[in-house]
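Researcher: I'd like a candidate sequence for this fold, 123 residues long. If you have to choose between options at a position, lean toward the conservative one.
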């Protein structure tokens, strides 16, 4: 995770700028909102309940995502910046998991380049 960027389209929010390096050496830059990380985390915990520690918390290998902050103004830069390092650590921990998790469809789709990654909205 390289940085955070403020966006105003369709409304004010922040995205995390992520440099993705694939196993073939190709690199791309993608942009993801915190809510997309949260969605991925929910998918992972549903798909891998054992690895998510639902039966036994000591068995959990899926990393923890920094919690949702329910302030009225979670779009403020301070919140986004405070999450930058934990989100970077989350991404790194996620790809270190066994391949059946780190290379599952949900993880691959999350890090795939999307049309708005190629042409981010201009301020």
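Model: Candidate sequence:
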């Amino acid at each position: 995770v390289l940085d955070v960027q403020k966006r105003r389209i369709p409304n004010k929010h922040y995205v995390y700028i992520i440099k993705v390096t694939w196993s073939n050496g190709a690199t791309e830059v993608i942009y993801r909102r915190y809510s997309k990380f949260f969605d991925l985390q929910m998918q992972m915990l549903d798909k891998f309940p054992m690895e998510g520690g639902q039966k036994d918390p000591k068995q959990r290998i899926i990393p923890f995502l920094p919690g949702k902050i329910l302030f009225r103004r979670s779009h403020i830069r301070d919140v986004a910046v405070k999450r930058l390092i934990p989100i970077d650590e989350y991404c790194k921990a996620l790809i270190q998991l066994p391949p059946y998790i780190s290379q599952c469809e949900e993880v691959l789709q999350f890090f795939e380049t999307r049309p708005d990654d190629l042409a981010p909205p201009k301020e």
